[in-house]
Amino acid sequence: MVAAAASNDIGDRGYANPDVLVSTAWVAEHLEDAGIRIAESNEDPLVYPSGHLPSAVEIDWTRDLNDPVKRDLLDESGFAELLGRLGVTPETTVVFYGDKNNWWASYAFWVFQLFGHHNSRLMDGGRLKWQQENRPLTRDVPKYDTVEYPIPIRNDSLIRAFQDEVLQHVKAAKALVDVRSPEEFRGDRLHMPDYPNEGALRGGHIPGARSVPWARAANEDGTFKNAKELQAIYIEEQGLSPAEEVVAYCRIGERSSHTWFVLTYLLGFRNVRNYDGSWTEWGNSVGVPIER
Amino acid sequence: MAEHPEKLGRFLEMLRLVEDRDDRIELLIGVADRYTGVPPGLASRPYPTDHLVPSCESEAYFWAEDRPDGSIGIHFAVENPQGISAKAMAVILDENLSGVPLEELARLSTDIPYEIFGRELSMGKSMGLMGMVAMVQRAAKKRLSSPHRK
């Protein structure tokens, strides 16, 4: 494992686990480090091919991280095959970054934790910060020798929530965080006439959920706010406690991965799960309670 | 397969012939490279929010420029520097739909993004790109229903 000493001011921000976050400067210094694999994960399929960090591989959230047929994540052998193809061993530190304030990078990071690849980091500020600092990008796709990655066990129980578990969570009046926009939370009709629907038959939110849009955790440059600022939002304003069980959700689970990361690693919450079924499952389900 | 205005149909047909995913991506990046933004005489920053494409996370704005023949010129401003798909979409819609009869624009299929980018788009991304098409469609319908239309 490569020690990811918090660089720049990350170590001074008061995070519970600062080592999980690395700066663009730190990444720039470790681009050629054989023990590190830089991985870009985006929403937009054109972004990585148009230019990416030197030595970075692409992890595509649809093709690489999801089952091609059923709605689920890739399975254990698929994960081993993916990492082996990327030349990643259990000892390799994987540093994620991407577009959209690291939404998909956070999602990929979360998936890697399900499979126990804890040797993972997130590049603070993502791709946008790297570009704004005029750091180099390349269109050359690196090639790494395929390795054998041992087939892991995917443990969904700790950080992933399924719909029936969320229903129980609601009945027990436990904490839920809806990280979508306020308009989505309210169930407002967002689309104009002739505009396609929002991927769900019903609008609104899961009863009892607090509305904390994901973007509140980020600065304008895409970096994470410091711990004091985050505590002011999630603990003081929303009344969440690091000791309680929290479920975060959005529309398909990528924005809530960002908030899951914030609560778990930056604020040290001990029991946060990401409901990746999210609103596209809940808002299409028959008979589940909805609040507006 | 939806019926498209002729020039757009030819473009989509050409795209279908590019079966290799990487080749298609390279082609679309090349299209996005032709993006030049909205003509300065038409709009300037900060762009008014009533031109914003709903749900487009690349912060795209749309203008329909009326032409003497009754058709419209199609212009998008894409403010997200990482919005490469949105830029490609803006170029495709401008190059293939500007000047097309309004009746054809009003019948546009909002599934066009899937024909261009495939089915692997995220819901958020497809919503935004569909929204760009819907803006063009809506501008055409608005003009067609205008009592002042000749």
Describe the 3D structure.
- The complex is a heterodimer of chains A (292) and B (150).
- Chain A is α/β, with parallel strands linked by helices.
- In chain A, 26% of the residues lie in helices and 11% in strands.
- Chain A is built from nine helices and nine strands.
- Chain A has a five-stranded parallel beta sheet.
- The N terminus of chain A is likely disordered.
- Chain B is mainly α.
- In chain B, strands 1-2 form a two-stranded antiparallel ribbon.
- Chain B is globular.
- Chain B starts with 5 loop residues before the first helix and ends in a 6-residue tail after the last helix.
- In chain B, 43% of the residues are buried.
- The mean pLDDT of chain B is 92.
- Chains A and B meet through helix 4 of A and helix 2, helix 3 and helix 6 of B.
Give me the secondary-structure topology.
The complex is a heterodimer of chains A (292) and B (150).
Chain A: E1 21-22, H1 24-29, E2 36-40, E3 57-58, H2 76-85, E4 93-97, H3 103-114, E5 120-123, H4 126-132, H5 163-171, E6 175-178, H6 182-186, E7 210-211, H7 227-237, E8 245-249, H8 255-266, E9 271-274, H9 278-282
Parallel strand pairs in A: 1-5, 2-3, 2-4, 4-5, 6-7, 6-8, 8-9
Chain B: H1 6-17, H2 21-32, E1 60-66, E2 72-78, H3 84-97, H4 102-106, H5 112-117, H6 123-144
N-end to C-end Cα span of chain A: 47 Å
Distance between the termini of chain B: 33 Å
Percent of residues in helices of chain B comes to 40-55%
Q: Which range best describes the helical content of chain A: under 10%, 10-25%, 25-40%, 40-55%, 55-70% or over 70%?
A: 25-40%
In what order do the strands lie side by side in the largest sheet of chain A? 1-5-4-2-3
Based on secondary structure, the structural category of chain B is: mainly alpha
Q: Number of DSSP helices of chain B?
A: 6
| Overall form of chain A | globular
Number of strands of chain B: 2
Assembly type: heterodimer
